[in-house]
Amino acid sequence: YNAGMRGGKVSVHEGGSRVPLFMRWPAAKWQPHVVKPIVSHIDVLPTLLDLCGVQAPAGPKLDGISLRPLLEGKESAWPERTLFTHNPIDETNKFPGAVRTQRYRLVREIKGPAGGSKAKANDDSATPWQLYDMQADPGEDKNIAKENPEIVKELSAKYDAWFADISSEGLQRFPLPIGHTEQNPVELHAPQGYYDKPLHFASGPGFANDWLTNWTNAKAKVWFEIDVTKGGEYDVELAYDCPAEDAGSKIRLDVGAAAQEATVAAAPIQDIPLPHRDEIGKERYRNRKWSTLRLGTLKLPVESDTVDALRLSPNLTHETHHSPPFFIRLSGFVLCGGAAAKHPLRHRR
Q1: CATH 2.60.120.260 applies to domain 176-347
Q2: How far apart are the C-alpha atoms of 324 and 334, rounded to whole Å?
Q3: Cβ contacts of residue 78 below 8 Å, gap of 6+?
Q4: For the residues 259-286, what does the mean pLDDT come to?
Q5: Once rounded to an integer, what is the mean pLDDT over residues 234-242?
Q6: Is the model's pTM score more than 0.85?
Q7: Which of the listed CATH numbers 3.30.1120.10, 2.60.120.200, 3.40.710.10, 3.40.190.10 matches domain 14-166?
């Protein structure tokens, strides 16, 4: 069910990006009502800051605006919005993309299998711009781009300017902070890390429950970029699987000058199927029951304004010649110092 909207997950049509938003705050005494003007997820943070009376943090200007006027029923104070959608197939593609105003939706697609989720990032293969009147044609059945070239020109120019702005510094992955009392233990999962070949994700794209496998090269490493916010001692555990024939290999964990090494014991492979509506999901959407290997304690200093790398690498006594399904996950990097108790930090190879 998609309420008659065109497209689904990963599509840049309305059905792939429009979602419901319900907001309730009894103390504010807002009157129940449906808001008609278009809004976006980028408006949530400015709204919370506004309602809490908190100034926006230093840094780049927030893209969104506070929804407070709409929540208080003051739609006349709401500006005309132009919102943008982009499907980042990789770190460089400009399309698929879309522009949404209160009346129109401008769309440019890259066709591919699975509704576009497996499309190749080739902007030269993008379709011409499509234009739809969302008030007269909410299902996007009639492309009116040819009849409205000036609107296409105006909105596509806005998309070009928006994309140039957001991509001017390239995509940046933020370092993972460790050391906050509010997040203890800290969990670092395989999809958050970097890795060398021939390692790859067991299910392909590296979803949240995926793991890394095919660790058949002793020179291959896995690493996480971390930001140590509070120095201290951190207990480290590795959650992993290991076939019996690969037991006895050694694994090394290092952060700067601190390092620990342990011998990998055999760990039985036990798949846990996850509910999913698609037949292909039986293979792609699954978890595992992981064994735990304690790697020891690392003493980490605070690195002000720097990013360190937490590296996991094999120190193999022999080469493996098949694909041991090792999953990398730090699922409990925890601060231990002073009066604080020590907590487990996990890794998965």
Answers
A1: yes
A2: 28
A3: 37, 69, 70
A4: 76
A5: 84
A6: no
A7: 3.30.1120.10
